[in-house]
Design a protein that fits this description.
The chain has helices spanning 45-51, 54-63, 69-82, 87-95, 102-115, 125-150, 164-173, 179-192, 199-209, 214-225, 233-244, 250-259, 277-291, 296-313, 322-332, 340-360, and strands at residues 29-32, 37-40, 43-44. The chain has 387 residues and is an all-alpha fold.
Length: 387
């Protein structure tokens, strides 16, 4: 470009991925990428996955502390009641394309939910916490109900007396999950409940900074989550495992992908420079589920893929992230593979809402700058005179 048409400005530093930019202080989540640690409100994710429940974790993220027993029973009932969808939402789901993407259906449905919010324009923190709880339950109800609708099966009404993970599995599969499956699903949702200022949480924060309503911030987050470089990696990673089929074919496939400059989904992370602690936990779940399944070879393929990727890319600190084994875990639990990203949203709604509420405590509209490099003296030519 001719220097005469460039703006005479100093060239600023461009942080395209906002790698080292901090947008807020938080007491919600710490991602320690060097040591492979993840903390919610100071609690190690390993302890929460082993000892907590999703409902307790959601309360912790939203309220900043662990609940008492009466508080836990109350939030469990509120989330359970919210899994029951209104007649209008059920009609919307029946009208959706049967071959639609579950995450697209979820995004659309959450938008519609906002029009019927029972607390209307009440923007107090207390109302927004209640709204967040209803969204957490409602999102699970949408994901489970749409799966039943698109497969031509009867929609199963929720049982508020059951735990969130247990009831979700029943609403999708029509079967009462055994204690082991129930516990693994619960823990998997705990692992996905939050992860600091990732792409979807940032999108929710940007929307929140304009003082949009809570539903709108969650819609923004869901839209961002869909991409294969974020939540969509769950489905992409599992498709890779399925397509390889045999452990002995994994190395050649991975080397081919890397040689062609491709990406093996489910590996690498902007923050972690070692193993993602969530991936280590999910790997244990996948291993245990595989041994009791009719498809143990899928776990063997995953192991072979991991071994090859880590060996080839160790110098770049590339290790499996949470998305690599989660699709496999969901498959062993009887869940369709293309529900993976929607299940991610189902759990992460708790974290999204917590960050939005935190940002509103000291709100400032997000308005970054871009560095203009285009012309500055263009002359308008009338339409009929243009060549």
């Amino acid at each position: 470009m001719d220097d005469a048409v460039r703006p005479s400005l100093d060239v600023p530093r461009i942080d395209k991925g906002l790698d080292d930019i901090y947008v807020k202080e938080t007491s919600i989540c710490l991602v320690d990428g060097q040591r492979g640690r993840l903390l919610y409100r100071g609690y190690d994710i390993r302890d929460l996955a082993d000892r907590s429940t999703f409902e307790e974790t959601a309360f912790l993220l939203l309220q900043g502390r662990l609940p008492s027993r009466p508080e836990l029973e109350r939030v469990k009932a509120e989330i359970g009641n919210a899994r029951a969808l209104t007649p209008e939402i059920r009609r919307v789901l029946r009208g959706m394309p049967k071959d639609g993407s579950p995450i697209d259906v979820l995004r659309t449905t959450v938008s519609i939910m906002s029009a019927n919010d029972p607390e209307g324009s009440d923007r107090t923190r207390e109302a927004n916490v209640r709204r967040a709880v209803r969204l957490i339950g409602g999102i699970a109800g949408v994901v489970a109900s749409y799966e039943r609708v698109r497969s031509g099966r009867r929609v199963i009404r929720p049982d508020p007396a059951k735990g969130h993970a247990e009831d979700f599995l029943h609403m999708v599969t029509g079967k009462r999950p055994n204690p082991r499956h129930r516990r693994i699903m619960d823990a998997a949702m705990v692992l996905y409940a939050d992860h600091s200022m990732n792409a979807s949480t940032f999108a929710a924060t940007v929307a929140a900074s304009t003082l949009a309503d809570l539903h709108s911030t969650i819609v923004a987050a869901i839209a961002t989550l869909k991409g294969p470089l974020h939540g969509g990696a769950i489905e992409a990673a599992f498709e890779t495992i399925q397509s390889i089929g045999r452990a002995e074919d994994a190395e050649a496939r991975v080397l081919s992908i890397l040689r062609d400059g491709g990406k093996v989904f489910g590996f690498g992370h902007r923050v972690y420079k070692t193993y993602d602690p969530r991936a280590l936990i999910l790997r244990e779940y996948a291993n245990g589920l595989a041994s009791a399944s009719t498809e143990p070879h899928l776990f063997q393929v995953a192991e072979a893929v991991q071994e090859t990727v880590v060996r080839e890319l160790r110098a770049k600190h590339i290790y499996p992230n949470v998305d690599f084994y989660s699709g496999l875990v969901y498959h062993y639990l009887g869940l369709p593979s293309d529900l993976g990203t929607a299940i991610f949203a189902m759990a992460r709604a708790a974290g999204w809402a917590a960050h939005v509420l935190e940002y509103w405590e000291d709100n400032r509209i997000v308005r970054p700058l871009d560095h203009y490099v285009g012309p500055t003296n263009a002359t308008y030519v009338p339409l009929d005179e243009r060549t």
